[in-house]
Amino acid sequence: MPDISVRSPMQKMLAGELYHAGDPEIVAAQEAAFAWMARYNGALGAPQAVRDALLRERLSEVGAGAVIRPPFHCDYGFNIRLGAGAFLNFNCVVLDVVEVSIGEGTQIGPAVQIYTADHPRDVATRRTGLEFGRPVRIGRHVWIGGGAILLPGITIGDDAVIGAGAVVTKDVPPGATALGNPARLRG
Question: Which Pfam families does the record match to this protein (predicted)?
Answer without folding.
Answer: Hexapep, Mac
